[in-house]
Amino acid sequence: MKAFCATLALGAALLTGSVAVANAADLYGAPGGSIKDATPVIPYGSPMSWYIRGDIGWASHDNPVMVEDGIYDLVETKIGRNWTYGGGIGRYFSPSVRGDITVDVRTEADVRGRLADPGATAPGTRHFGLKSTVTLFNLYYDFDTRTRFTPYIGAGLGFAHLKTTTGTITDTCGCGFTSTSIATGSDWHVAGALMAGFAFTVRDRVHLDAGYRFLYLGEVATGPVTTTNALGTAMISKDPTVEDIHAHEFRLGLRMDIRSRTDTAPTPSTRRMLPADPFGRGSEDQRPDGRGRPGSLSISRSRKRTASSPPGETPRGAPVLSPDA
Question: What is the model's pLDDT at position 170?
Fold first, then answer.
């Protein structure tokens, strides 16, 4: 639990440090030449907009490469299915870009592979378990559909701690072993992910997230393989290794936005655009209802007075300044 909390704190610090990059990109329609001056968006009420998330998932795996003693390639390799659960913290960098750090615990999956080489000391099928904890730094792009549904794509990079549990060997050679065992092993490895899915806005600041994640976990070696027979106990293999561990995860989660009470921006799936201010002030002097702040001047258009216009008629297209109600 301490490692989980420490990792989330580190991720929060890294995400906070990126605020300078996000502000430099000027994606919020700030005055003075923003790339979105033509159709400014409602800015967030605070410089940062955070969210927390929780996820569960079900995973299957590609058949891995398994090698024993660095010379024997195991056949009929397989990693069973398992469950995942975890959570994370993130923030919105722009109306379409967000990032988070997640920590997921992957429950134990059964691993097996058969050593079929007749020249090996103890041919047979190896059985043991594999579990892991995965920490990822993720970036997502949300496609704003102006509805409750928001499709997204994403990618993540981080690290995984993999651990194998104790295992056994099924004797297929008739070697007369009275017992066999495979010791535990563990390792750290670089992890990566690609994601796609959609979010559904259940209510204000609460989103249901459903998606697919391809996960690369690297490799891990078990402990020594030992056998016991009438002559005693002997180590026959140092470290059977499971390589190229790939998972296909189907995930369901809940995301909750955390913003200050001064925030005016809706979620990406419900965000609305305001017409451009012809005076070049961007959107900072406008409220979500399109009116100015109390005491400011709102802009309206009326008819432009011409020589042929009746007396008292306002020229078309001319801006009229009037105190805001």
Answer: 86
Half-sphere exposure of 79 (CA within 13 A, CB side): 29
Residue 8 DSSP SS3 = helix
In Å, how far are 134, 152, 159, 197, 204 from 210, measured between CA atoms?
Answer: 19, 10, 23, 6, 18
In this structure, are residues 124 and 134 in contact, taking their beta carbons and an 8 Å threshold?
no
Residues 112, 109: Cα–Cα separation, whole Å: 10
Gyration radius (Cα) of the chain, Å: 30
Give Cβ neighbours of residue 114 (< 8 Å, ≥ 6 apart). Answer: 74, 75, 76, 123, 124, 125, 126, 172
* Phi, psi (rounded to 5 degrees) for 217: -115, -5
Q: How far are the Cα atoms of 45, 54, 89, 136, 159 from residue 5, in angstroms, in the given order?
A: 28, 14, 11, 14, 16
Distance CA 101, CA 57 (A): 17
Report d(CA 260, CA 46) in Å as an integer: 7
- 163 vs 148: CA distance, rounded Å: 40
pLDDT for the residue numbered 311: 55
| Tens digits of residue pLDDT in 205-237 | 899 999 999 999 999 999 999 888 766 667 778
What is the spatial distance between Cα 303 and Cα 101, in angstroms, rounded to a whole number? 54
120: Cα within 13 Å, side-chain hemisphere: 25
Mean pLDDT rounded to a whole number for the chain: 76
Q: 19 φ, ψ to 5°?
A: -60, -35
In this predicted structure, the answer to whether residue 67 has a pLDDT above a threshold of 80 is: yes
Give the whole-angstrom CA distance, residue 91 versus residue 51.
6
Cα distance between residue 144 and residue 149, in whole Å: 8
User: Are 176 and 229 a contacting pair, CB within 8 Å?
Assistant: yes
